[in-house]
Amino acid sequence: MPKLPSTFVFTDDVRLPDPVHVAATLPQNWGIVFRHYASENRRSLAHELAKVCHARGLVFLIAKDWRLACEVHADGVHMPEGVLRTSTVSPILNAARTLLLTTSAHGPTGLHLASSLNADAVFLSPVKITSSHANTSPIGVLPFAAMARASHLPVYALGGINSSDALRLNALGAAGLAGISLSKEEI
User: Fold this and answer.
1) 29-49 burial code (b ≥16 CB/10 A, e <16)
2) CATH number at residue 29
3) To bridge 103 with a disulfide, which of 58, 114, 142, 169 should be the other Cys (CB 3.0-4.6 Å)?
């Protein structure tokens, strides 16, 4: 399994419509979590994105679909907390456990769930106010730090994060940063 990078970009059908272009311009050793759930060409886009990620040394995760992750030879699968609560993950743990497994969490319950699945990392969100979850109260930097330090898993800060947050969050226990708009800041 590849080493986890310090920064992940999450794709989004609306706010990051061309993930292939983004992957071609990201710094090496970053990661991409491919979501694009509503895309009619999700499968072909995943194949194209996988080629770029592999060529550039980017860690590539497919969200929600371990079969697609295996098909495109992704480095791993990312399972949102809500999906984990409503479905069985035994196929992931059995058939695809040669892949990285990351989850999302929105508080201590989600962190515990990620730990019980022996996930490789967890994305804790939203740390700060974010336009993608405008009606969700942010966790806050200090509560995030307390939860990250209490977890035995690597915990990434997600939600409302920008590049200027990196030093502070890393010093407070974050394994790294994740977001949609990070790619726009760094490119």
Assistant:
1) ebbbbbbbeebeebeebbeeb
2) 3.20.20.70
3) 114
Does a structural domain hold residue 61? yes
CA distance 163 to 166: 5
Domain count for the chain: 1
Residue 187 has pLDDT above 50, yes or no: no
40-53: pLDDT as tens digits: 999 999 999 999 99
The 3 state secondary structure assigned to the chain is CCCCCCEEEECECCCECCHHHHHHHCCCCCEEEECCCCCCCHHHHHHHHHHHHHHHCCEEEEECCHHHHHHCCCCEEEECHHHHHHCCCHHHHHHCCCCEEEEEECCHHHHHHHHHCCCCEEEECCCCCCHHHCCCCCCCHHHHHHHHHHCCCCEEEECCCCHHHHHHHHHCCCCEEEECCHHHHHC
Q: Which residue has the tokens 């920008």?
A: 162
In a domain, 2, yes or no: no
- Domain ranges, residue 106: 7-186
Tens digits of residue pLDDT in 62-85: 999 989 999 999 999 999 998 877
Residue 1, domain member (yes or no): no
100 φ/ψ angles, rounded to the nearest 5 degrees: -65, 145
Strands 59-63 and 31-34: parallel
